[in-house]
Amino acid sequence: MKAVRLHGYHQRPVVEEVPEPVCKGPLDVVVRIGGAGVCRTDLHIIEGQWAGAMDPALPYTIGHENAGWVHEIGSAVTSVAVGDTVILHPTPTCGLCHACRAGNDMHCAASSFPGLDGDGGMAEYLLTSARACVKLAPETKPRDVAALADAGITAYHAVRKALPLLYPGTTCVVLGAGGLGHIGIQCLAALTASKIVVVDRNADALKLAAELGAHETVVADGNQVSSVLDRTGGTGAEVVFDFVAEAGAEQDGFAMTARAGSYYVIGYGGTVHIPTLDIISTERSIVGNIVGTYNDLAELMRLAQDGLVTLHTKTYPLTAAVEALDDLDHGRVRGRAVLVP
Predict the structure, then answer these.
(1) What is the pLDDT of residues 177-193, one digit of tens each?
(2) What residue spans of the chain are helical by DSSP H?
(3) 122/192 same-domain check
(4) Of 341, 197, 320, residue with least CA distance to 333
(5) How far is CA 218 from CA 203, 222, 285, in A?
(6) pTM of this prediction?
(7) 85, 142 contact by CB (below 8 A)
(8) Is 315 in the same domain as 237?
């Protein structure tokens, strides 16, 4: 089968032939990929940012946002059958550790992360686990939902955690209306009564944000912090969702957060520099977010199938993976890029 393989950090991946995966364990599932999302994390992987954390054996297949059709199942699999349409939780988990039993799947003590620590889904087939498969309506097109498997669940997870803070009369700020942010805006519009203010430097992204439910938009032109403060009576927002968290956004996000408010970090790549006095004197919280639970993904898919969350995508053939990555890196993708084998 064809797969997008990374042979070395700081090198472009290549599309090459590799053996098809097969089920070996009783709970294994092989999925024929119908859509594989292209994520900024893939760029960070290529740059070597995850080398110390995951250390996969190179070369390996990248891609951690996957949906498709069940191709083969292990002997003990009963939750899905061959032919079922599925979206895959990005981290197959054990179901037995404390984190899994507490519903915090993404912190499973024995989880794997296809696409980061082993072969992922930018390929024609992917080996995963029955525990990762969320069954979808048969008419669902995997290419339309694939990126919800990571970008979507990550945005939804952050919004869902913040729901108790977003009661009527509050304001939330969304930094970045791109691949992650445009999903977060829709989740906020669907689940909260909070006023949504979106900040981005791209006019097209802000136009999309307004169409998706943003009440106000702010151009990131160097005056974005003061603009947000002006719109909130000088206090800042109760919650700030930072879907960028690099190139200075990580400093803006905390500065836009009101006293006793919460700054949710979802994107990454930058470094937060905040005097500890500024944290304790204002009681502002910094909240980290990583992926989400299986139930988060299942709930998000209900929103998607009800038409409340829609992915804006640009599709590429699997053989054009390098082009898709390059387009993402240079800001030529509005929403999410998706590879279709």
Answers:
(1) 988 999 999 999 999 99
(2) 40-46, 51-54, 98-101, 142-145, 151-162, 181-191, 203-212, 224-231, 249-255, 276-282, 294-305, 321-329
(3) no
(4) 320
(5) 9, 11, 23
(6) 0.91
(7) yes
(8) no
The parent domain of residue 58 ranges over 2-150+292-340
Q: Locate the DSSP E strands across the chain.
A: 2-6, 14-17, 28-38, 60-61, 66-73, 85-88, 125-129, 133-135, 171-175, 195-200, 216-219, 237-242, 257-265, 285-288, 313-317, 336-340
Long-range CB contacts for residues 48-53, cutoff 8 Å, separation at least 24: 48/9, 48/10, 49/269, 50/116, 51/9
**CB of 336 closer than 8 Å to CB of 312:** yes
pLDDT tens profile 274-311 = 999 999 999 999 999 999 999 999 999 999 999 999 98
Q: What percent of the chain has pLDDT over 70?
A: 100
For residue range 77-101, what is the model confidence (pLDDT) as tens digits?
Answer: 999 999 999 999 999 999 999 999 9
The pLDDT tens digits of the residues spanning 20-60 come to 999 999 999 999 999 999 998 999 999 988 887 777 889 99
**Do residues 263 and 238 make contact, with C-beta atoms less than 8 angstroms apart?**
no
Structure-block tokens of residue 282: 């204002």
Count of residues in the chain: 341
Same domain, 175 and 315: no
pLDDT at 194 exceeding the cut of 80: yes
* Beta-bridge partner residues of 87: 67, 134
Q: How many domains does the chain have?
A: 2
One-letter amino acid for residue 323 of the chain:
E
Question: The domain spanning residue 245 has which CATH number?
Answer: 3.40.50.720
For range 139-147, the mean pLDDT: 95
And the tokens for 315? 């599709």
Instruction: Give me the mean pLDDT over the 107-115 stretch.
Output: 92
Q: Which residue has the tokens 């640009």?
A: 314
> Rounded to a whole number, what is the largest CA-CA distance in the chain?
61
Domain with residue 66: its CATH number is: 3.90.180.10
C-alpha–C-alpha distance, residues 50 and 118, integer Å? 12
